[in-house]
Every structure is written in C-alpha cells, then in structure tokens.
Write a structure and sequence with these properties.
Shape: elongated
Radius of gyration: 27 Å
Number of helices: 4
Number of strands: 10
Structural class: alpha+beta
Strand content: 25-35%
Length: 243
C-alpha cells in the first residue's frame, strides 16, 4: 500500500473532533431549549401582567382584602391606585435570559390611621409599622404643664405590594414571591414551568383583587421539598432556598 492511500493524521483528528462536536451540540440542544422555554414563559407573563395592570390603573377597583396591624389598626378594602412591571436580564449558558420579572403596585385606604399610645409604647408601634412600608409620622402631645401625655402616629394608608417571578434555570422551576398582597407578610410558591400558564395568571390577578385565593393552591410553598429532603438526608447540593 502506498503512503498516499494511508489515512492522514489531520484528517483523522478532523473526523474525531467533528464527531465530538456533534455530540456536544446534541447534548446542549435540549438544555438550551429548556432554558429558552422558561424565558419565553416569563416574557409571556410580563406582557400579560403589563396589560392587566394598565387596565387596573384606569379602573382603580376596590380590593377585597383586610390588612391588619395588631395594636395599630386595619385597612379594609383599599383601592388599587397604580402599578407597573419590570424585568432584568442576565447571561447564562451563552444565552441572554430573564433573571426575574417583578410586579409593583400600590393600594390606598379610605382614610389615615391615627394611633395614640403611651410614649413608652411608641417603639413597639414603630416595630409594627416599619415592615408594612406605610409612611407615618410621630409626634408627642403635652398637657398644660408641658408634660408628655401621649404619642401620636399618623399613618398614611398606602400599601406597597410586589410579586416577583424568579426562575431557577438549573432546577427548571419558577419561584413566585408575593409581598403585602393579602396581608403584611410574604409567601413564596414554587411552580413548574408548565403550571405558570395564563389560567394561573388569571388566578393571581383575582387574588390581588381579593376575589379568590385559588392561586395559593396552584403550587407548593417554595423550599418545602428542599426542607423535607434535608430532613431525610437527601439534600441536593445545588439547591438554595430564599426565605
């Protein structure tokens, strides 16, 4: 056999690298498609919510929730005033993907809250008010001898609420955190991408308006499975939970 008929080293290397490259591209394709599916899902949610909040700002409906602050008072059936949707992007796996989508909106109560307390209780009331994010002022009242007899809080009944959609592309889930939506606290739910469809967004909007709480039943609390696996000694190494 002549030297010309023998395989050349470069041709052999070229064939091997092409085969490896093809295997890598075949392995990456499902991953890229999965990442892209979550990104598209979040873009659909962004556009849907952006339009919905625009309509609510025109209508300014009354919201059927009662926001209670112990020892302070409550805001019953506040009015939706305004809101907007924002997003942030980031690079991942060579792709430009949504890092999160977040809804911000403001509810306004019918009248200010006026709370009179003993001056020694003012610090406790401030601790109650601070997490609510409602603006307030504090002043003292004195008697005719200029002795402080009480402290007075004037609370503006403006509730700042937000809903954050945060994808975990590695685990293929979307964590939805609701803050001050139906009460002065936060709750996080964990959705599979196929569960966060238009019907879920409709339930979310109905929950915001105080019509139904079906949205809370659509997904488990975020981190519940993770905590259960930790107890059982099977915690996944890459799993993180944000409280």
């Amino acid at each position: 056999m002549s030297d010309a008929s023998k395989p050349k080293l470069l041709e052999s290397l070229r064939a091997q690298s092409s085969a490896v490259r093809a295997q890598g591209e075949a392995a990456r394709k499902p991953v890229e498609e999965a990442l892209g599916d979550i990104d598209k899902l979040l873009w659909r949610a962004f556009r849907w919510l952006d339009e919905a909040l625009g309509h609510l700002e025109v209508i300014q409906p009354i919201v059927g929730h009662r926001f209670l602050l112990p020892n302070v008072g409550s805001i019953d059936r506040p009015k939706y005033e305004r809101g907007f949707v924002s997003y942030r992007r980031r690079a991942l796996a060579g792709m430009e993907l949504l890092d999160h989508v977040e809804v911000f909106y403001r509810l306004v109560g019918p009248e200010p809250l006026v709370v009179r307390v003993h001056p020694g209780s003012a610090a406790m009331i401030e601790e109650r008010l601070r997490p609510s994010s409602m603006p307030y002022t504090y002043a003292t009242e004195t008697d005719e001898r200029r002795v402080v007899k009480s402290g007075v809080f004037h609370v503006t009944p403006a509730i700042s609420a937000n809903i954050r959609f945060e994808p975990d592309y590695h685990r293929q889930v979307v964590e939805v955190t609701l803050r001050n939506v139906d009460r002065f606290e936060s709750v996080s739910l964990e959705f599979g991408p196929d569960k966060l469809d238009e019907a879920a967004l409709e339930d979310l909007l109905k929950f915001v308006l105080g019509e139904t709480n079906g949205f809370l039943r659509r997904a488990p609390l975020a981190g519940f499975k993770a905590r259960r696996e930790v107890v059982n000694g099977n915690a996944p190494g890459a799993l993180a939970h944000r409280a």
